[in-house]
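PROTOCOL LOG
Step 1. Enter all chains and additional molecules of the complex.
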Amino acid sequence: MKNLLVKEGNDLLVSRMQQTENTQFEVKGCVIGGEKTIVIAGPCAIESEDILKETAFKVRASGASMLRGGAYKPRTSPYSFQGHGEEGLKILARVGQDMNMPVVTEVMDSEDIGLVAEYSDILQVGARNMYNYSLLKKLGRLDIPVVLKRGLSATIEEWLLAAEYIMAGGNCRVVLCERGIRSSETWTRNTIDLSAVALVKELSHLPVMVDPSHGTGVRSLVTPMSKAAIAAGADVLMIEVHPNPEKALSDGPQSLTPRGFSQLMREIEPIARACGRRVK
Amino acid sequence: MKNLLVKEGNDLLVSRMQQTENTQFEVKGCVIGGEKTIVIAGPCAIESEDILKETAFKVRASGASMLRGGAYKPRTSPYSFQGHGEEGLKILARVGQDMNMPVVTEVMDSEDIGLVAEYSDILQVGARNMYNYSLLKKLGRLDIPVVLKRGLSATIEEWLLAAEYIMAGGNCRVVLCERGIRSSETWTRNTIDLSAVALVKELSHLPVMVDPSHGTGVRSLVTPMSKAAIAAGADVLMIEVHPNPEKALSDGPQSLTPRGFSQLMREIEPIARACGRRVK
Amino acid sequence: MKNLLVKEGNDLLVSRMQQTENTQFEVKGCVIGGEKTIVIAGPCAIESEDILKETAFKVRASGASMLRGGAYKPRTSPYSFQGHGEEGLKILARVGQDMNMPVVTEVMDSEDIGLVAEYSDILQVGARNMYNYSLLKKLGRLDIPVVLKRGLSATIEEWLLAAEYIMAGGNCRVVLCERGIRSSETWTRNTIDLSAVALVKELSHLPVMVDPSHGTGVRSLVTPMSKAAIAAGADVLMIEVHPNPEKALSDGPQSLTPRGFSQLMREIEPIARACGRRVK
Amino acid sequence: MKNLLVKEGNDLLVSRMQQTENTQFEVKGCVIGGEKTIVIAGPCAIESEDILKETAFKVRASGASMLRGGAYKPRTSPYSFQGHGEEGLKILARVGQDMNMPVVTEVMDSEDIGLVAEYSDILQVGARNMYNYSLLKKLGRLDIPVVLKRGLSATIEEWLLAAEYIMAGGNCRVVLCERGIRSSETWTRNTIDLSAVALVKELSHLPVMVDPSHGTGVRSLVTPMSKAAIAAGADVLMIEVHPNPEKALSDGPQSLTPRGFSQLMREIEPIARACGRRVK
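Step 2. Run joint prediction.
Step 3. Record the structure below.
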């Protein structure tokens, strides 16, 4: 198993054979891949400055370290809300600064990388763009951390090789994010593959994130799957929180309320400690 | 979500709407579905009395509550080792008695139910027989606990309705076992669906088991996935242990050594405690 | 590819390396695996003698060679119609005799084999029982043709080895039936895998059937997929026909009317001829 | 079923409710979506002018209407051959002109659209980019036909909505290409979903292409699946042909030799005629 990540006799950059110790890096005072389990929270889409601010204030109070929010949304239908674009980026940056929280947002188009990087501390590649190798190559030439979500039905090998596309360009600050894969199950939106988390921690030195909100698509499953993710070895969690999920412009059914998020933080804390880590 | 398990206006027997409190039952002093997380361990197949005895002795010493071992093996090829049949059952019963451990074994054929029930404390329906409704109906008329594994690509609905087949006959001592479903991932044998564990705990009152050995097919993933399973809410774990995995007649690559099992028991203990449960 | 079906250096009985020429056999005057594409038609379940007679009369007039109908139905819920059992078998046998059509029906339980074999000319193993190796072994000891449906997510290897279970017992009259596998597509009930048909025809000498009714679950797709199945190499088609699909006790949405079936027969005829075969 | 493609009461542009008759359009004298089944052939990647010329000469002689070849290759590993880029495009354009064949090639990056469109008559969006909505939106503003491959595990709904992204911009010359989806089968590279072809022909007016080379990944299955694709209703086939598949820089195992392609053309001709169409 240890020899899987080899090309023509050489260990890949993502491989733990290439680098034994875990990759750690700091983003504005937040250490990713370290002892502390990092929790990133926020709404699916940036809807307004007020909503984002309220969310940020509350999730920070509960212990979230970073703020998330989408300005560019990859929606299945061209007629669905596509995000507020640059306006959304500006809101995100302002709120992040006000709250002193690093921010994460998705970049969908290689032409937008410069713009998004101006406002965000970490760039996220969504599941739908994991195979967008042009985008990955360009991100590889930048000096900004990248969250790489696993593709909708991507194998672990394809996912690690997608990270290799980024690292081959010189950018080694990559976080691998498991967000559920497609299966024949229909009562959950996707099937979270936590064995992939454990396996990637074994095969690679990169930090691993889990997104139980997209991974399940079901609000009541977010907390138990967050606990399970930490137990499986995840370094980072990404949780969708919205002050009023029923009115969210996207992904309401999987969003926690700030109160639900606070409960989640309380529940994961003893699990993290049982794994020799901490949440706060 | 709560209303999923309804037929013509009536809550199904498996549904938590039908019975609010968790189902608990005792098997020779072992309480399933209670505060204590039950760990069942043993070899995939019963190979010889010596091997089984050695395994039982060691896993009991590490804290396993029950002993598993297959006498009838559903193998993909008719030319692979098919299990020792009745001879195996006798060995299992003897070792269980000697060690004072309840035993679990698989029944594959409705004609064998009486025979297997004579020697085993719990009957297991394998993933390949989850849709074998004739077998399920007959098990429903018995007074013996049944472990019902989820089918290879069964939906949660089909799995719960398979349990309903057993319960409709009057037998309510059913344990649901998640053992991984098929996906397009190839580095693991199956994809363990822990969100199914959390969801079944929400929708049903039945106890839930996880089999990380078959679920991953990879030895090094058994311990992290056991921890994750407990964090997701599992009541029971089933772990393959063999004194000499390299020489096992089946499923060697996913079997722990007794030493590895002892390590697993040490690692899951703090997780169970963090979830308000205990392992020993 | 040709060497896939080997165990310990020996070609399996299912393998074309073991037998170069196609397996052909006759069932009451119907040659399966020969020049003529055999079409089996009838309702999903045997509901009443009148309905079955009407269906048989009409599908025979359109060119169907054999009659199908289920007396034992593997339903997802224990509370759904389970089939008329022995009463249904008797109806099927009578109608088959009256119409001079060989009949096919499913056997679900190894204890029922003798009973079902008394009334049916071919025994069908459903997709849910493909891994029921006890059942397969018993069928291997009989002298009656068996239709073996591919499991819901079975690999081609598992399917061919399931046939090997039957052949290893001495019964070589096996027909392999592709009926769709599970995928993440939701607008069709299953995903018919016609490349499996072409591959099995290459690797094995056994005749291959396609069931586009269960394979798609959508009435309007049955005819185009029947044409495609013949073009891919199928020897036999199995088509659900009901005089009044809206009132069918099971699988109405995928059943053709007798008129729709007659249209299907007209449309597949030129395709069969283009493949060097004939339908009538 | 007919009402699936509706948003807020309006039929989508892709829907057959919006436009009853089939979409047809001409590319340099080749009519796509018309009576004639169009066959596009050529190597996976453009390796050299000599190889492409030889291939083009031979496939045209056998009846291919268009030439394919990749200049930008989306490879799983960053260290695999990535295509010759602009140099490859120039070769493709020159050979297409010399042979009087329209050419098709893939565009991977929204920044390259202008460049690729300069050299190619049709732009192809690969399966890995089906969800790349930025790319699709930009293609929607152009006046050049687009082949849109179905994503690796995309549902039919997502695929049609991806086409809607292009059409919503004003570009209505879209061809939908089925190229196999992921399943748990491992003996074929992907599982070609021909029921999707039949269903899309029913639901949409757009022409449908099938790529049996990528769809199966197995040379011997390309011809039977081409026949089946035409029988299921495909308007266009795309076939990988290489003069020396063993030495191909990518996808050798699924490429036909020119001689194999000539045989394919002979075998599909009677099927096309049986469907009221023609190949030459």
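Step 4. Note key features.
The first strand of chain D starts at residue 6 and ends at 7.
The longest helix of chain D spans residues 258-274.
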